[in-house]
Structures are given as C-alpha cells and as structure tokens.
Design a protein that fits this description.
There is one protein chain. With 204 residues, the protein is mostly helical. It is built from 2 helices and 2 strands. The chain has a two-stranded antiparallel ribbon with strand order 1-2. The chain is rod-shaped, with a radius of gyration of 72 Å. The termini are far apart. InterPro entries: Remorin_C, Remorin_N. Belongs to the remorin family. Keywords: Coiled coil.
Amino acid sequence: MGAKKVEFETTPVVVASAPSKEKEAPAVEKLSSDEPQEKSLVLVTDEKVLNSKTLAVVAKVSDPAAEKKKDPPAEKKPIDRDTALARVETEKRMALIKAWEESEKTKADNKAYKKLSAIGAWENSKKASVDAQLKKIEENIEKKKAQYAEKMNNKAAEIHKAAEEKRAMVEAQRGEVVFKVEEAASKFRSSGTTPKRFFGCFSC
C-alpha cells in the first residue's frame, strides 16, 4: 500500500494542570484497519502553568484509494465533452469530404468513360469508311488493271499480227526471187549461155 497523506488541524484544548516535568509524551490512538477514512492523533504538552491553554494537534489521515475515487474537478468534464464533440465533428467532416471525393471521382470516371466510348465509336466509323474507300480504290485499280492488261494484250496481238504479215511478205518476195532465179537458170542451161551478172537480182 502507498504512503498515507497526513493533514494537520490545530484545535485549542483546555487541559488541567499537571505537575509532571517529564518530556512530552504523545498519546497515539491506535488506527483500526476497519476504519481507513480518518483517525485523530492528540499531542498534549505540560508547561507548568495552571489552567493554561494548549494546542492539540489533530492528525487527519486520508486514504489515497478514497481520494482516487473522488470525482474529477468540475472544470475537466466540460473540456472532455468539448474535445469529444470536436472529435465527432471532425470525423463527420472527414467522412463528408471522403464521400464528396468519391462522388466527384466517380463522376469524372463516368464522364471520361463516355468520352472515350464516343472517341472509340468515331474511330471505328472513320476506319470503316477508310477501309471501304480503300476497297473501292482497289476494286477500281483491279478493274483498270484488267482493262489495261486486255488493251496491252490486244496491242501485243496486233504487233504479232503485223510481224507475221511482214514475215509473210518477205517470204513471198523471197519465193518470187527464187522462182525467177530458178527460171533464169533453166533458160541458161537450155541455151548454153551464162548469165552476164551474178547475183544481180539480189542487189535489187
């Protein structure tokens, strides 16, 4: 157990004359364990004066455990209550701020999602249009390519035909010359003469 706090109270006490010259002997009242609240200790002094007034010192012993059980000062309760109210208000304000923050973030996310969806749809539409144009151009190119190919083939056929005609003409001319040479040679053989010019016909 902790040390007990001792408070002293002075009370004037009238004491009868006592001729004794002995030293001061304090009379201590035994403290009972059943009474922990307050006990008195009376000290009596004799100064050889008849009918003199002396002071009796009363020791007031208090229990620390009982003091701890006492109510706190009246000033502390309002402070604690104000602190608790302030804390509650702060928590409420923080909760409102958090809810507002989440709401604004959600709004921003939804707005951005709508815009991104619109951009995606626009992109897909433009890509589809470009793909259609490219396909149309490719079809036109293929069509023109076929037309050009046919035209070139016709030209090639015409060139080949012209070349064949020229070849035929050359062959015909050659045939005529050969026929003339053979006919002239036959005449020379039958007449026994010789030609005056050799290969004259080839110089024509």
